[in-house]
């Protein structure tokens, strides 16, 4: 009963928040609602018993990624509302909804559940973080290490890309470039 | 000895490639000299081989490399120097050497001098492959090789325009080259079918294996194979009804006519019959047809030569006629006599053609014998050579033609086939008549060329000297008949005259000689004094029939060429309307599709993303459908 | 009772929202946000399937998806900053320099 209530509340909230993210004109609103949606996603993870994943979701998404966006946004001019031509809505709705329908149909209707078997069964004697740890450091050790290296590379790449010309003032360059563009 | 085989075979190829290096450059004398030298090397190697084989009776068989090894099919590039092939090698290389030297003089003023030598040597190489191969596949390679070289050489002056004639609609070197090539293709199909039949039933194309298997084959198979092979021989040797190309091939340079269309290539058909004699000797029906057709062609061609006015065409008709003699002999089972006549004919016919070339050179490319006459003063050497060659051709004792032709006629008598016998004797008389008609009209009588403002001159000295080996051989070749018989029967079945024939041999010889001498005397009476043209004769039906070559070219034109051209036009239209249109339609659809979808390349990432989503939907649909199907 | 299909439908809806965002928006930053939504939708489906089929593999996949998403954000944001410095805009309509 509690699970049901939680699921529906979370679902409505997540869908609503993400809709705000997608349709909002203001980047700050969009980011805030996205962060809140991420928290609620973590809630779903807790609901399905993936405790560790939920915690990681909170730390990585809500903590790291959103902070990264927040910092990144300092470089952009986000106080104004975005002025963009958006693609016609009917089109987008048809495409998006049909993809959702197709995928749901595929997984919910066509794939035969009988044919699916657990390749890595959950051991009920262990807590979820324990089980995840066992899996990560045995069967998924190599992908795990590769992912670690990838994150390291991404970190270095991010620093180098974003850190270029960090010492020069961005606003000054902006003005100069704006003037140059006007001349053109 | 193996290396000699390779030297004999590849010296002409080296010569061809060497001359080919200079093909596009202006005339270089040394190209001709070096080519002739290499050909002489090839001749020397062939001669040594012949001597070796004659003295030790050892057949030399070499295998150069594997050519086709696929599943059960194994065809090597193997070459063999045995009694038959070495005879052919000596004849071919000897005539080729003389013709090469001759060409240095004859092609003197031609700007494609070097190219000519390249083609000529390539021809000799192909011919040697043809005669030396130890299997039917190699023979076929050479067969096609000489066909291509013949095409190249007939059409050597491809730039000459079409000339309208009264007999054919139009003729030019390239037209004649194509005619020769296409007619040979028709016959080659027959030859290929023969090879397939043999391979299908024997599983090999090696001569020795095939011939060893003959007793195990059904008569019907053998008859089919022999008939198909003979169709191939008919094309190459220009037998009726595929004969028209040979006279038209005279459009090529005269050395080419001498080498290819008299002495060597056209005898390839006879060579094939001789080479495959184990097959033909067990198929009497086919052999009889060969003999009958040969006799018919001998008479048929000789009759056309009687009235022709073109110097080279007369000799071409006589070549046809003599090829008929060879086929008659081969068809009657006297293979060695056929081969002997082939060799003897090669010598005197090449000499005759080269002499005609001298006349042509001296008369500034004039070929009409009605416009000549009295040339013996201006061209003594040529007169001597052509006279000798004509005597040999007519079969006058003791020249080469006497021995070989007489033997063929005796064979016909020996077989008890009186019809063939009589026709061949009459043909011998006709041969003598047309040969000397040509000699007298060209060299005797009044000097008609003055009217046309021509000043004839003799050929270069070295050319005349180079021709002397042929002249000597035209005289003495016949004397080696007995020796040749002993040499060749190691390989070919001997042909013995019966006791009865033996008794009558002298009378037969006398009859033949009487006909030959009678022909010469008739020609002398009619033409020695000069050209006497009578309206009545020339207007008669027979004369018209003969001078128009029995209207066969016209009939071919109307019955085959024209309908075929119409059919081709129809097919071309169908091709344009259906095949091409379909191909064009595909291209148009793609073009239109490209035009319409070019808008997608807007450079706007957002548009691309939208299209990507559409693509994802399409893929999902496919995935779901495939899941449903599974 | 909440079953697997509930979660799958939810994941589908979230994915559709993310996709609509990708299709609709022209601002690069918003595209990034939409991508995050799509990735999270997939993660929800993974976790749910993991739970209902009693298989840890789904959670493992979700982990790696998160790792990739984190790297993508790190590199992507760096690139966005470069683009913004160079072009002074993040609107795709203004960045159409690859017009063919």
UniProtKB/TrEMBL annotation, chain A:
Molecular-function annotations in GO: NADH dehydrogenase (ubiquinone) activity; oxidoreductase activity; quinone binding
Gene Ontology CC terms, in alphabetical order: plasma membrane
Membrane-protein topology: Multi-pass membrane protein
Protein name, entry field: NADH-quinone oxidoreductase subunit J
Function: NDH-1 shuttles electrons from NADH, via FMN and iron-sulfur (Fe-S) centers, to quinones in the respiratory chain. Couples the redox reaction to proton translocation (for every two electrons transferred, four hydrogen ions are translocated across the cytoplasmic membrane), and thus conserves the redox energy in a proton gradient.
Cellular location(s): Cell membrane
Leading EC class: translocase
Transmembrane regions listed in the UniProt entry: 6-23, 28-49, 55-78, 90-111, 140-162
Superkingdom of origin organism: Bacteria
Automatic annotation (TrEMBL), chain B:
A Gene Ontology biological process term: electron transport coupled proton transport
EC number of the protein: 1.6.5.11
Keyword Transmembrane helix: yes
Residue spans crossing the bilayer: 6-23, 30-54, 83-104, 116-133, 139-159, 180-202, 214-235, 256-274, 286-307, 314-336, 342-361, 382-403, 418-441, 462-484, 504-525, 608-629
Keywords: Membrane, Oxidoreductase, Transmembrane, Transmembrane helix
Subcellular localization(s) per the UniProt record: Endomembrane system; Membrane
InterPro entries named among the record's database cross-references: NADHpl_OxRdtase_5_subgr, ND/Mrp_TM, NU5C-like, Proton_antipo_N
Domain NADH-Ubiquinone oxidoreductase (complex I) chain 5 N-terminal: residue ranges: 67-117
Residue intervals of the NADH:quinone oxidoreductase/Mrp antiporter transmembrane domain: 133-431
Listed GO MF terms: NADH dehydrogenase (ubiquinone) activity; NADH dehydrogenase activity
Membrane topology category: Multi-pass membrane protein
One Pfam family it belongs to: Proton_antipo_M
Any single GO CC term annotated in Swiss-Prot or TrEMBL for this entry: membrane
Protein name stated in the entry: NADH-quinone oxidoreductase subunit L
Species this protein is from: Sulfurovum sp. enrichment culture clone C5
Gene of this entry: nuoL
UniProtKB/TrEMBL annotation, chain C:
Gene Ontology CC: NADH dehydrogenase complex; plasma membrane
Single GO BP term: ATP synthesis coupled electron transport
Location of the protein in the cell: Cell membrane; Membrane
Pfam families: Oxidored_q2 (PF00420)
Annotated family: Belongs to the complex I subunit 4L family.
Function in brief: NDH-1 shuttles electrons from NADH, via FMN and iron-sulfur (Fe-S) centers, to quinones in the respiratory chain. The immediate electron acceptor for the enzyme in this species is believed to be ubiquinone. Couples the redox reaction to proton translocation (for every two electrons transferred, four hydrogen ions are translocated across the cytoplasmic membrane), and thus conserves the redox energy in a proton gradient.
Name listed for the protein in its UniProt record: NADH-quinone oxidoreductase subunit K
